[in-house]
Amino acid sequence: MSRVTDLEFLTGHDSGTIVLGAEWVAPNPRNYGRGIHPDMVGFRINVHPVDASERAAVRAVLRAHALPQLHERITQAIAADESWQLTPHQHYWRLTDGHLTQHEEA
After folding, report:
1. If DSSP codes are grouped into helix, strand and coil, which group holds residue 80?
2. Residue 32 — φ and ψ, nearest 5°?
3. Pairing mode of beta strands 99-105, 89-96
4. What pLDDT does residue 35 have?
5. Contact, 18 vs 93, CB < 8 A?
6. Predicted model pTM
7. Residue 44, Cβ density class (10 Å: 0-12 exposed, 13-18 middle, ≥19 buried)
8. Among candidates 72, 10, 6, 9, which has minimal Cα distance to 36?
9. Residue 12 has what pLDDT?
């Protein structure tokens, strides 16, 4: 959890098929004078809203599959090389018809 800088449970309308998001906030040293404060470097995690009728099923999938994958992702980030850590990353977990998938955007 020391690498998690923000955890937010989003509210409002559901996010479609996205149920969990994790964003790596890099220090961004390429922008002299416009870097990121050191306390902000790390993961921001968003738990997306889902329809009330699906919450129990989504919660079970998150606990069983997405959260262990997120833990593995954070563990890999801690050990990642400098080029990975200096680049922002976004990772999403989507749940469609009971099937969980992952997607990364760099």
Report:
1. coil
2. -55, 125
3. antiparallel
4. 66
5. yes
6. 0.83
7. middle
8. 6
9. 83
34 and 28 Cβ atoms separated by less than 8 Å: yes
Token couple for 14 = 């559901």
3 CA to centre of own chain: 12
Q: What gap in Å lies between CA 33 and CA 77, rounded to an integer?
A: 25
Angle at 3 between CA 23 and CA 26, to 5 degrees: 50
* Phi and psi torsions of 84, nearest 5°: -65, -45
pLDDT tens-place string over residues 25-68: 888 765 555 667 777 888 999 999 988 888 999 999 999 999 99
Secondary structure element (H or E) that encloses residue 83, with its range: helix 82-85
Contact 38, 27 (CB under 8 A): yes
Q: Which residue has the higher pLDDT, 20 or 39?
A: 20
CA atoms of 61 and 65, how far apart (whole Å): 6
